[in-house]
Task: structure prediction
Amino acid sequence: MTPHIAIIGGGIGGLCLAQGLRKAGLDVTVHERDRTPADRLQGYRVHIDPHGARALHDCLPAHLWEAFLRTTGQGGQDFGFLTERLNLLTLLETPKAGDPADDHHSVSRITLRQVLLSGLDDVVRFGKTYERYERLPDGRTRLFFADGTSEDADIVVAADGGNSRVREQHLPHAKRVDTGIITVAGKFPLTDATRKRLAPRLADGPNTIIPPRGMGLFTAPHDLGEPVTYGGIGVTEDEGALMDNTSSYVLWAFGATTGRFPPEISEMSGGQLKDTVARMIRSWHPDLRRLVDMTDADTVTLLPIRTSIPIGPWPASTITFIGDAIHSMTPMRGIGANTALRDARLLCVELTHALTDGGDPVAAIARYESHMREYGFAAVRGSLRSAEQFIGDSRVARTGFKTFLRLVQRFPSLKAKVFA
Ligand SMILES: Cc1cc2nc3c(=O)[nH]c(=O)nc-3n(C[C@H](O)[C@H](O)[C@H](O)COP(=O)(O)OP(=O)(O)OC[C@H]3O[C@@H](n4cnc5c(N)ncnc54)[C@H](O)[C@@H]3O)c2cc1C
Result:
């Protein structure tokens, strides 16, 4: 009998892993607390980098990889660093890769979820909120859910996100903390008419806007052109501009330390959040102010930024972790989902080899975890550094950084070397 693998959490990492294990013919179920696929989902686009693209390519069946490619938007390949007056500091050019599995993509989080859920009707169980586990004498694990049910599994994969209940029980010393940074994000609708009202760079590709000190703004277009649907993929399921995955927009995310926002920030409506950001950037370039002013208040949300604290190795067992459940990170490098996808691919390869060749699954999990800890915690540290730079309060450090960016822009070979 093939061992049974239970995945807790049907988010980006858990579903990608389920697709890969299922493609390999293994016995897998996903337990997801949300009752329907669209519950609690935020509506912004996700940048998929070559790690994420390779994982999706390898784990998805060919027709779903095709569906993913057809339903992505243009996000622009080149990354700009600009001042708050929209003066270019430097542009990091990324040539298009020959193989889309090695490339960058911009995808709606909702559309990605539709891709990842396709064909998994008999694998994903919605409305299953995991609560705790018990080890059984035969080495299996019994999982208990809030609805009073339980399930036994040979291997358990915790993919239950940043507030992982599995991590709380299995690795209680692994902590996740508040960074003291808050971001407010929104969607500026991108149409032929609104495009003319923005500096071209804002619709051409992603940018970080660096003002003199204390705050930062990230912008990224998600341009669908003529939206394409593929079966039920790319179709909007919920009303409202936030969950609309058929329209083009520029995502913006403004960040600063909590103390720079009004004390009642966490109670504010979308409209109040938008007005607050508008006030904080009132001396910036008019196009940046327009980006915020013309945003539909329904798409504006508050995101307190948290991060995990890397821990040392733990003994491998039949319970393991992928994605935010073990290495949640600030979104400032846009690599949390990509790292979750990378985990899913690597764990899928290791488990498939072990379980189809009669190998030892715990040894396979140990190999996966040792590799994952290295790149996963490096990503956590790097993302925290990026978050601290994003809101950096030292005018001197900011001026130095901008001078450095202007310098590398003048010397392309230096730029290529520094940002390699
Ligand atoms: C604003 C923002 C923008 C971002 N942009 C990017 C980007 O461009 N690129 C990028 O790579 N990353 C990005 N990230 C990070 C990325 O969203 C996460 O790293 C990624 O979603 C992690 O995937 P995951 O599968 O580990 O967890 P999740 O996607 O959070 O999935 C966890 C799942 O587990 C379920 N769950 C939780 N608890 C339980 C329970 N007790 N029982 C059952 N189910 C449970 C949840 O409902 C959820 O479906 C962004 C994050 C934010 C906040």
User: Anything to note?
Assistant: The radius of gyration is 22 Å. Residues 8-14, 31-34, 44, 46-47, 128-130, 159-161, 165, 185, 303, 323-325, 331, 334-338, 340 surround flavin-adenine dinucleotide (CB under 6 Å). The chain has 14 helices and 17 strands.
